[in-house]
Design goal:
Shape: flat
Radius of gyration: 38 Å
Distance between the termini: 38 Å
Largest sheet: 4 strands, antiparallel
Strand order of the largest sheet: 4-3-6-5
Number of domains: 5
Number of helices: 23
Length: 664
């Protein structure tokens, strides 16, 4: 049993007692509290939220009965007592607690951060775009190495000139051969085929998805250069397809090889058209794709933009399962495809993590981070001292990280202001301290100061946002309290109940002796029960067990024989049973050594042996039950001792307010 699960604390009612608020806004005046635990007030909102959370899974039932309310209140009080004791024992001060709580905290805070909401927006936008596929052609104009501003302007003017030619009737595909710096343009004439979201760099995708078929973009700047984009077509996303294929390779530089490959693929295609041909046999015999030829040519599922355009278009043009394409040529050779299966695009829930992973790996992650910082600066009143920062940038950019603190001291720059945030001024010395605490350095793509200053600002803003959430976000406070108290409760229960119940062997024996009346065998009977599933084998079974008496060799011989010859003919069980509780043995005549009996329309053959009267169990026979019961005893004892240690006082008026709040 994993006692760290929330349900383990309150299994009887399946109420999430760890999901509630005990925030800084709890009642300070005990007269306004629902109850006090050893003088510590507990606000009614905790209980109201707790019960509401437990009831939220049952949409058919609104409100709670008086009986449910009282039962939940009792459990809530027991829970609060245990958390109070854990705090009194200092369990919240241990290194183990801090490590575990901080680990949880990193995960818990994420859904509440500005970054998460921005990422969620990008996820939804990407998935929305994935409902459509776009076919576009482009011309790429790259910058020369170490391009100056003047060089960039020349490239931009060239891109605008070619755009004008396209708008005046020029063919973008022919112009791509003349002008494009994309090496593939010599082969595909700038035609990129169909693609969908997250398959192109973000600026290119953004531009393509704003264009309608026939429209041409202004120059689009990406890391590759300027692009002129013309959208040729937009279609609903056809989803995914799975095909198997036959491949015949050739050397593109050898015309003779290509002609031989073309003839061979034509002969294979003709062979496939014949009746009674087996696709898998043809693939195994003729396909030159070693990765798939031994498994029927089967390829993984793929969607638009995942394969070379000609292969992809042929695959998606197939409509019926088992349909075979005519031979098609690609850069790898000649192919014949067979459609195995099609399916629509996956749901957002199924694709969410994959989309998130792709977004975090491309330029969108940097864009999201920039937006996060901008929002945080506006929200928390960030004020940069531009003059001071510019001066520090000039002086400290050439300085290596290892030597950063030296000029701060020698030039008295440590007290130079960087920025003000929520009334606090951060200095250059604070940046230096931050740099020293960071073990992993970023890749330097710029001056030392600029790189580390940007990181310091982002880290300071993140911590400010986290503190703001802890102080003002009620839902996040609830979640933090849930995990904090959950860890404490686990630690206390593990120390005082679970592990103690398992390891305290003397306590187990003593508990067993005091409660021996709970560990009694009822009347027992040795029995071999054969459930007959195949009546054609009934006579063989009778002959094998009737008149043999209950004995282990007979049972082993019978079971070995039917498992070897008639696996599904019988089901058997044997041993010493408390027969009054057994569904079959409770209905037999215990005086007979062999009998046949029908139970619920099924025939059973029963061989009986020795009868044993009711008697006390031995400790070894009951140890599992004893440990379970001993743990329950320890739990009850703990609660009773805590009630004495931390007196409970309940405010009847506030209690009634809580009940009414749950039934509004």
């Amino acid at each position: 049993m994993n006692h760290r699960t929330i349900s383990a604390f309150v299994v009887p009612l399946q109420v999430a007692f760890l999901l509630f608020l005990s925030s800084k806004a709890t009642a300070q005046d005990s007269s306004e509290a629902l109850l006090t635990v050893g003088g510590t007030p507990v606000d009614k909102d905790e209980l109201v939220y707790l019960i509401s959370k437990g009831k939220s899974n049952d949409t058919q039932v609104s409100g709670v009965s008086r009986e449910e309310f009282e039962e939940n209140l009792d459990l809530f009080i027991n829970y609060k007592l245990k958390v109070r004791e854990a705090e009194a024992l200092g369990l919240d001060k241990s290194e183990e607690f801090s490590r575990e709580f901080n680990s949880f905290k990193e995960t818990l805070i994420y859904p509440y951060l500005i970054k998460n909401s921005l990422e969620e927006g990008e996820l939804r936008k990407a998935y929305s775009r994935m409902q459509e596929v776009v076919r576009a052609s482009h011309i790429l104009f790259q910058f020369p190495p170490n391009a100056s501003t003047e060089d960039s302007l020349i490239v931009l003017k060239m891109a605008l000139k070619v755009k004008g030619e396209i708008e005046n009737g020029g063919n973008i595909n022919e112009l791509a051969v003349l002008y494009s710096d994309d090496p593939s343009a010599k082969i595909n004439k700038g035609d990129l085929g169909y693609f969908t979201s997250l398959q192109m760099v973000q600026p290119f995708e953004d531009a393509a998805y704003t264009l309608q078929p026939g429209q041409v973009s202004d120059p689009v700047l990406t890391n590759f250069g300027y692009h002129i984009i013309k959208v040729q077509d937009r279609q609903p996303n056809p989803g995914q397809v799975r095909v198997s294929h036959i491949l015949v390779r050739f050397d593109a530089e050898d015309p003779t090889q290509e002609e031989n490959a073309r003839r061979k693929i034509s002969d294979i295609y003709a062979e496939i058209q014949k009746e009674n041909t087996v696709w898998e046999d043809i693939v195994k015999t003729f396909s030159e794709d070693p990765a798939t030829s031994q498994r029927g040519g089967l390829l993984p599922w793929f969607g638009i933009g995942s394969m070379i355009p000609e292969f992809e278009m042929a695959a998606f043009s197939l409509t019926e399962t088992g349909e075979v394409s005519p031979p098609l040529k690609s850069q790898y050779g000649y192919h014949i495809l067979r459609l195995e299966e099609k399916k629509p695009i996956d749901s957002f829930e199924d694709m969410e993590e994959n989309i998130r992973s792709k977004i975090l790996r491309d330029s969108r992650s940097g864009m999201i981070q920039s937006q996060v910082v901008a929002i945080q600066k506006a929200r928390y009143g960030f004020e940069e001292d531009e003059a001071s920062v510019n001066n520090l940038s000039q002086v400290l950019n050439p300085v290596a990280k290892a030597d950063f603190s030296s000029p701060l001291a020698s030039k008295s720059l440590g007290k130079s202001p960087l920025f003000k945030l929520q009334g606090k001024t951060y200095l250059a010395s604070d940046l230096s301290t931050f740099m020293e605490s960071e073990e992993v350095s970023p890749k330097i793509n710029g001056g030392t100061f600029d790189i580390w200053y940007e990181r310091f600002v982002a880290e300071t803003l993140s911590k400010t946002e986290e503190k703001d959430l802890e102080a003002n976000n009620k839902e996040y406070q609830m979640l933090l309290k849930e995990y904090r108290d959950g860890i404490l409760l686990f630690s206390l229960m593990n120390q005082e109940v679970w592990e103690k119940g398992i390891q305290d062997s003397l306590g187990q024996v003593e508990f067993f002796r005091k409660n021996i009346d709970q560990y009694q065998w009822k009347n027992r009977l040795e029995a071999f029960v054969v459930k007959v599933l195949d009546t054609s084998q009934l006579e063989n079974a009778r002959n094998a067990i009737q008149g043999k008496g209950y004995n282990e060799p007979m049972i082993r011989e019978f079971e070995a024989a039917y498992k070897a010859n008639s696996t599904l003919a019988f089901q058997t069980e044997s041993g010493l049973f408390e027969y009054a509780d057994h569904p079959v043995l409770s209905q037999i005549d215990t005086q007979l050594a062999y009998q046949e009996i029908q139970v619920d329309g099924i025939l059973y053959l029963v061989v009986t042996g020795q009868k044993l009267p009711a008697e006390p169990r031995k400790f070894e026979e009951s140890r599992g039950l004893v440990i379970r019961d001993y743990q329950e005893y320890l739990d009850k004892t703990l609660i009773e001792s805590l009630k004495s240690k931390y007196p409970i006082q309940i405010n009847s008026q506030v209690k009634e307010e809580a009940f009414l709040a749950l039934n509004q």
